[in-house]
């Protein structure tokens, strides 16, 4: 993703384990809303048959500054000749003043569009 959308994703650092394996810890370095951010995550589950991966955020702005907990599920489904990415966010807000993570949703949707455009250009 770094090579496909370098203005959005700057690095994906593996701290423990292996990429795509349950229990692995990774950090994503990215720019969202004009601000450089980091999201440290542990892979909670992988279901290759259903094309689903679940990340629990354990560090970074989302859980250190905004939410009590945050979990992201990515599920990829076949659709026609292509695929559809479905992102699910589970989060706990400390109070009602904390906004919903709509900017992160927009960021991920735009990132998927970049990946799609890159794959179509091949």
UniProtKB/TrEMBL annotation:
Pfam family membership, one: Bet_v_1
Protein name as annotated: Bet v I/Major latex protein domain-containing protein
Organism field: Mikania micrantha
Cited PANTHER family: MLP-LIKE PROTEIN 423
SUPFAM superfamilies in UniProt: Bet v1-like
Domain of life assignment: Eukaryota
Domain Bet v I/Major latex protein stretches: 6-122
InterPro entries: Bet_v_I/MLP (IPR000916), MLP-like_ligand-binding (IPR051761), START-like_dom_sf (IPR023393)
GO BP annotation list: defense response
């Amino acid at each position: 993703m770094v090579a496909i959308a370098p203005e959005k994703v700057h690095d994906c650092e593996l701290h423990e384990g292996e990429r795509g394996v349950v229990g692995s810890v990774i950090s994503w370095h990215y720019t969202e809303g004009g601000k450089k951010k980091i999201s440290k995550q542990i892979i909670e589950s992988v279901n290759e048959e259903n094309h689903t991966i679940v990340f629990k955020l354990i560090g970074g702005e989302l859980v250190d500054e905004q939410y009590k907990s945050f979990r992201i599920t990515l599920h990829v489904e076949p659709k026609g000749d292509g695929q559809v990415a479905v992102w699910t966010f589970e989060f706990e807000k400390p109070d009602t003043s904390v906004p919903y993570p709509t900017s992160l949703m927009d960021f991920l949707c735009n990132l998927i569009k970049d990946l799609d455009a890159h794959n179509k250009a091949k």
